[in-house]
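task queued by scheduler; priority normal; single chain, no ligands, no partner chains; default sampling; output format set to structure tokens
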Amino acid sequence: MQGSISNNIRALRFHHGEMSQAQLGQRIGLTRQTVAAIEAGKYSPSLEAAFRIAQVFGVPLTEVFQWQAMASD
């Protein structure tokens, strides 16, 4: 099944003291560049990284990431 993952990382960072991508990366063990790529939708995080991001913000995983299934032919 094809689909795409979207996220609310930028909004969550803003609402948590305007946390930088570098600060988030340090807290979850990833580089700023990786956080930027995840935030831009260019890279899908591992399941572990996704849970770590949600934990930093104190929200459920579904509040950070959303899956949009695309109809197959």
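post-processing summary
- Residues 47-57 form the longest helix (11 residues).
- The domain at 3-69 is CATH 1.10.260.40 (434 Repressor (Amino-terminal Domain)).
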